[in-house]
Amino acid sequence: MNFQSCFPIWHQLTDDQRERIYGSLINRSVQKGTVLHGGGDCTGLLLVRSGQLRAYILSEEGREVTIYRLFDRDLCLLSASCIMRSIQFDITVEAEKDTDLWMIPAEVYRRIMTESAPLSNYTNEIMAARFSEVMWLVEQIMWKSMDRRVAAFLLEEAAIEDAELLRLTHETIANHLGTHREVVTRMLRYFQDEGMVRLARGSVELLDKKRLEALRDT
Known about the structure:
The chain is built from eight helices and eleven strands. Strands 1-8-3-6 form a four-stranded antiparallel beta sheet. The protein is elongated and about 60 Å long. The longest helix is centred in the middle third of the chain and has 27 residues, at 117-143. It has helices at 3-6, 15-24, 106-115, 117-143, 146-161, 170-177, 181-193, 209-217, and strands spanning 26-30, 35-37, 45-50, 53-58, 64-70, 75-76, 92-95, 99-104, 165-166, 197-200, 203-206. By secondary structure, the protein is α+β, with helices and mostly antiparallel strands.
């Protein structure tokens, strides 16, 4: 898999623009747990070649909440928030799995974006998609009960991993959902008592996905 095949509008750029992007690319391979971007840094745009990244915000009390995740061929713009002056919040981007990626320097991308309507439109489309994800998250936090949110997260994770046995700690789930570990533990024990999951140290096994789906969708 090469960069050109992963960047959707590559062939809509001029030869000079392609040369500037390709000549400035930084290839990185990072291990699970590596923080690629934090706080107000302007790291650059991250394009995932293979692996999985997580973007989250951190409260003053130190609680995390996942705002979106990035998979193969996904581009992270908010790691280069300096190219968008209206962005007023900080995010952290961390590798959830061992990940290979490309980084486009923010200044290179910003300059080409001012020249190229296709790149500007592409950037706006990505921002709109990310905004939709954030609004979905706000809706979940404001209107969904915690048991429905935990059920939805477990089902999403099972779909991502294509497995019913999930290697997750209660702390990890709490960090994704922006809540306390004790709240997640209470929910998972309830699910276990109801026969929907089986708990073991560092793992959650989904036993009855249909009931979890029914709970999620109520």
